[in-house]
């Protein structure tokens, strides 16, 4: 058996994907949205395999 839960949910709750750069006491940093820009919110893929003899 296999399937997808929450297939028709089209809402995309995304963080902005702009990057921020700066200098914090001599240490440079780059920060972005990272994994928050993933396009499948709440979607679950599942598969189950059963056997018996």
Automatic annotation (TrEMBL):
Keywords: Cell outer membrane, Membrane, Receptor, Transmembrane, Transmembrane beta strand, Transport. It comes from the Bacteria. It is a multi-pass membrane protein. A motif (TonB C-terminal box) lies at residues 36-53. Its main location: membrane. GO terms for cellular component: cell outer membrane. It is found in: Cell outer membrane. Belongs to the TonB-dependent receptor family. This is TonB-dependent receptor.
């Amino acid at each position: 058996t296999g399937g997808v839960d929450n297939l028709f949910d089209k809402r995309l709750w995304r963080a902005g994907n702009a990057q921020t750069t700066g200098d914090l006491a001599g240490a440079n940093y780059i920060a972005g949205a990272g994994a928050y820009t993933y396009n499948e919110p709440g979607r679950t893929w599942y598969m189950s395999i059963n056997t018996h003899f």
